[in-house]
């Protein structure tokens, strides 16, 4: 450590110690040959002689990480290197704290930087890194590992589980495997039943220029943990310059509850990447699925005139009283070599696949205006970076390597079987950026509500060739979506179809997780259900289209309801692959029960995720401490393994779905498959789809239900009160959370229950209550025709029925004796 830094730091420490209670919550200092950063819960000591560091639990000194090393571009500093340290203030969207910055140097080698960061009011560690190029030539930094060491040395791994943080179409799993390598993040957790659990969450924190990877290996003396990043092109660092990365890492070693540990990570991830995923809360009709033979199988309407026709017929069904409908026109043309991709203008949209911009809607503006006027929302479809030969010849300067015909070094990536041997557009090229800004300005002016990006890996330029010499492959890929996110503006849907890791966090709103399908199967709901801590938090998962005629079991209303229920709970988007006006009335009704899509950044926990089941069957959404939405999902069938391929998912299943009994102990800890309810507390339970009261349970009871084949049973659970209380509605599966501004309020003095609800015009709104020993005297509403009746008089369960002529917020009052 340089003398001037040591003197300055010593002065700061003297000042801080003299200030008593006002001293900073995070301290950085040197002690016995180690640079130390610590706060209330964590102490990190970097050994200035060996280049390794330990992380301890400060109150009791327990070792959390032992002998950790760091590495950049395959250079790992050791005892032959020299180390300097500095304390730097830390202030960002996550709060205030301090950074311990370590710089390793050695003759003939670059300077390697590791930054260890602690925040004042948090107990996770953030990591950053940097590279000082001391050579006379530019260097490409392609990889960096901020931690390679042993976590929880000597741990007894009882009931050990790991959960991967993979994204895209990778099948998320909970496993007991000794080794787990994951993109983005992972959870490792252990602890015997009835004892405090241990949870380790390691992952990326901020994303800009690199993909991140985590690995956990269970070894004899603990958990071998490694956290690193990579890029095929790497980051250019010029001679005599220093690059300090903004791609940081996250490590939480102290949150014992594994659900809470992952949920905290998701919330921190959203803050760190400045995520805003506000957007469509309505269903989106996909016009490709609607006509493809083995999906919707209906007439071809995938052009401007056809989509307007479909919008007119949808409006005639009356479905728009539940909200708008998204209309996604998909110019899914495969003409080679020329196509509309790259151009994205009226002329080229009208040119291919027989013309998809047709009179009288031959322009984007005319088409979008027609959809808006009919109560819809227009959406478009791009094939990301698929090249068009005529665009490449007209603008070779916009192509990678400034070459219209630069061949790829490897096989086609992310494109259909016909392939494409040449590289495509350069999203770092200033001229192409101006072109894309113009494209999105036109879409925004027309009121386009979002764009879906298909074949995203056509934009994964692993050979480089960027106009920006400092761009990494990951950065150039992220720019595709950043241009769209900024260009279309807030509230628009930027939809990435199965891309690369979490590199697009903060510049997408929707993240597709499945190949083409229009069904719901347990592996699909498990894939996104096990990403609950990210879903609706950093992106909305999209499992692709839904066709109720293909719901399992075939021909069963239970299957239709399960399709819509599990899509709602475990994804965050509702893509429809069947024309609305072709659906049966019951299907339209059931779809309306899951609209609108709630926008609160929370998704249901898969309660049984760590119980050894193949696919979670119990999902809990705690809306408040006293109000939960609990879902049992029956995945039992006669088959051996659910289809995992595209062909398997559009082929009719020969196996049968079976009935099943599912239950859970209400009072068991949330980490052990329960809801953590107090033993002496009582709870009312209401079954939404079957419109029935299931009874009163105590926290010491198990809730056990017998489910039909393929059924998803959605239950509202309310802690019982000593006065009358609200239980549920017939409007939405969240049963009051979406359609009510708040739960009805009890006025003890007036003996009244007062509330309000958003009614649907000419549709009877049903609200269900428990009298809890009181007697209903009168019901009234100034805005609706109102009546009431007993559902179960013996148990004190009654319903309030409200009818209005139009959609409106309707207040009501129930008087009791």
Please write the CATH class name of the largest domain. Mainly Beta
What class, by secondary structure content?
alpha+beta
**In the CATH hierarchy, what is the architecture of the largest domain at level 2?**
Distorted Sandwich
How much strand content do the residues show? 25-35%
Total number of β-strand segments?
44
The number of domains is 3
Rg, Å, rounded: 29 Å
What is the fold-level CATH name, i.e. the topology of the largest domain?
Beta-galactosidase, Chain A, domain 5
Q: Name the CATH superfamily assignment of the largest domain.
A: alpha-galactosidase from lactobacil brevis
Distance between the termini: 78 Å
Mean of residue pLDDT? 94
So what's the overall shape? globular
- As an assembly, this protein is single chain
User: For the report, how would you describe the main beta sheet?
Assistant: 10 strands, antiparallel
- Uncertain residue segments: 1-23
Report on this model:
With 817 residues, the chain is an alpha+beta fold. The chain folds into 3 domains: 270 residues, Beta-galactosidase, Chain A, domain 5 (Distorted Sandwich); 229 residues, TIM Barrel (Alpha-Beta Barrel), CATH 3.20.20.70; 187 residues, no CATH class. It is 17% helix and 34% strand. The protein is built from 13 helices and 44 strands. Strands 6, 7, 8, 9, 11, 12, 14, 15, 18 and 19 form a 10-stranded antiparallel sheet that branches. Strands 1-2-3-4-5-10-17-16-13 form a 9-stranded antiparallel sheet. Strand 14 and strand 15 form a beta hairpin. It is globular. The N terminus is likely disordered.
């Amino acid at each position: 450590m340089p003398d001037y830094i040591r003197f300055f730091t010593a002065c700061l420490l003297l000042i801080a110690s003299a200030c008593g209670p006002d001293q900073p919550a995070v301290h950085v200092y040197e002690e016995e040959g180690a640079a130390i950063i610590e706060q209330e819960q964590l102490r990190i000591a970097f050994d200035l002689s060996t280049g390794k560091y330990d992380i301890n639990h400060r109150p009791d000194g327990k070792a959390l990480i032992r002998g950790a090393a760091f590495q950049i571009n395959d250079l790992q500093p050791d005892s032959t290197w020299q180390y300097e340290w500095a304390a730097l203030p830390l202030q960002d969207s996550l709060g205030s704290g301090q950074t311990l910055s370590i710089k390793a140097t050695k003759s003939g080698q670059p300077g390697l930087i590791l930054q260890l960061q602690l925040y004042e009011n948090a107990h996770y560690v953030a990591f950053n890194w940097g590279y000082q190029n001391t050579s006379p030539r530019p260097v490409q930094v392609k990889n960096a590992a901020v931690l390679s060491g042993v976590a929880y040395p000597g741990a007894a791994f009882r009931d050990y589980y790991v959960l991967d943080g993979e994204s895209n179409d990778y099948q998320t799993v909970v496993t007991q495997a000794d080794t787990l390598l994951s993109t983005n993040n992972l959870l490792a957790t252990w602890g015997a039943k009835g004892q405090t659990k241990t949870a380790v969450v390691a992952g990326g924190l901020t994303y800009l220029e690199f993909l991140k990877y985590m690995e956990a290996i269970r070894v004899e003396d603990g958990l071998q943990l490694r956290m690193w990043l990579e890029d095929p092109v790497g980051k250019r660092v010029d001679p005599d310059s220093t690059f300090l990365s903004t791609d940081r890492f996250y490590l939480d070693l102290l949150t014992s509850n594994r659900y809470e540990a992952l949920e905290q990570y998701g919330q921190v991830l959203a803050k760190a990447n400045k995520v805003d995923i506000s957007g469509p809360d309505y269903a989106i009709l996909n016009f490709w699925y609607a006509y493809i033979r083995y999906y919707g199988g209906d007439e071809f309407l995938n052009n401007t005139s056809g989509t307007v026709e479909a919008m007119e017929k949808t409006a005639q069904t009356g479905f728009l009283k539940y909200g708008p409908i998204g209309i996604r026109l998909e110019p899914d043309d495969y003409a080679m070599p020329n196509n509309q991709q790259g151009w994205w203008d009226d002329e080229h949209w009208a040119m291919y696949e027989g013309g998809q911009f047709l009179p009288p809607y031959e322009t984007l503006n005319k088409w979008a205006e027609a959809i808006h006027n009919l109560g819809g929302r227009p959406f478009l479809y791009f094939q990301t970076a698929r090249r068009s030969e005529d665009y490449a010849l007209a603008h070779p300067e916009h192509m990678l390597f400034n070459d219209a015909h630069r061949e790829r070094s490897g096989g086609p990536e992310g494109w259909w079987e016909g392939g494409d041997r040449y590289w495509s557009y350069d999203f770092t090229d200033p001229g192409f950026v101006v072109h894309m800004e113009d494209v999105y300005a036109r879409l925004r002016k027309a009121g386009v509500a979002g764009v879906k990006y298909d074949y995203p890996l056509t934009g994964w330029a692993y050979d480089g060739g960027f106009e920006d010499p400092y761009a990494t492959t990951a950065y150039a890929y992220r720019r595709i979506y950043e241009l769209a996110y900024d260009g279309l503006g807030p509230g628009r849907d930027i939809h990435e179809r199965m891309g690369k890791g979490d590199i697009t966090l903060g510049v997408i709103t929707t993240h597709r997780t499945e190949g083409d399908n229009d069904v719901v199967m347990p592996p699909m709901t498990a894939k996104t259900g096990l990403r609950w801590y990210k879903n609706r938090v950093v992106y909305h998962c999209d499992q692709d289209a839904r066709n109720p005629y293909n719901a399992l079991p075939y021909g069963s209303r239970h299957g239709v309801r399960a399709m819509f229920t599990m899509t709602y709970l475990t994804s965050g988007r509702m893509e429809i692959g069947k024309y609305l006006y072709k659906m049966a009335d019951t299907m339209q009704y059931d779809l309306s029960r899951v609209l609108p899509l709630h926008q609160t950044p929370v998704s249901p926990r898969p309660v049984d995720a760590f119980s050894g089941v193949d696919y979670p069957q119990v999902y809990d959404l705690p809306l408040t401490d006293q109000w939960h939405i609990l879902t049992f999902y029956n995945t039992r069938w006669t088959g051996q393994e659910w289809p995992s391929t595209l062909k398997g998912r559009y082929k009719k299943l020969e196996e049968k779905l079976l009935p099943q009994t599912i239950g859970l102990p209400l009072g068991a800890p949330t980490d052990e498959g329960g809801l953590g309810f107090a033993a002496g507390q009582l709870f009312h339970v209401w079954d939404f789809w079957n419109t029935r009261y299931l009874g009163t349970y105590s926290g010491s009871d198990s809730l056990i239900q017998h489910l039909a084949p393929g059924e998803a049973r959605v239950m509202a659970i309310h802690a019982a009160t000593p006065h009358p209380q609200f239980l549920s509605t017939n409007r939405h599966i969240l049963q009051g959370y979406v359609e009510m501004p708040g739960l009805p309020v009890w006025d003890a003095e007036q003996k009244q229950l007062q509330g309000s609800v958003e009614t649907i015009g000419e549709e009877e709104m049903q609200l269900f209550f428990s009298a809890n020993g009181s007697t209903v005297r009168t019901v009234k509403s100034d805005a609706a025709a109102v009546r009431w009746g007993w559902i179960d008089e013996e148990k004190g369960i009654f319903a309030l029925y409200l009818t209005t002529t139009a959609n409106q917020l309707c207040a009501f009052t129930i008087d009791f004796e």
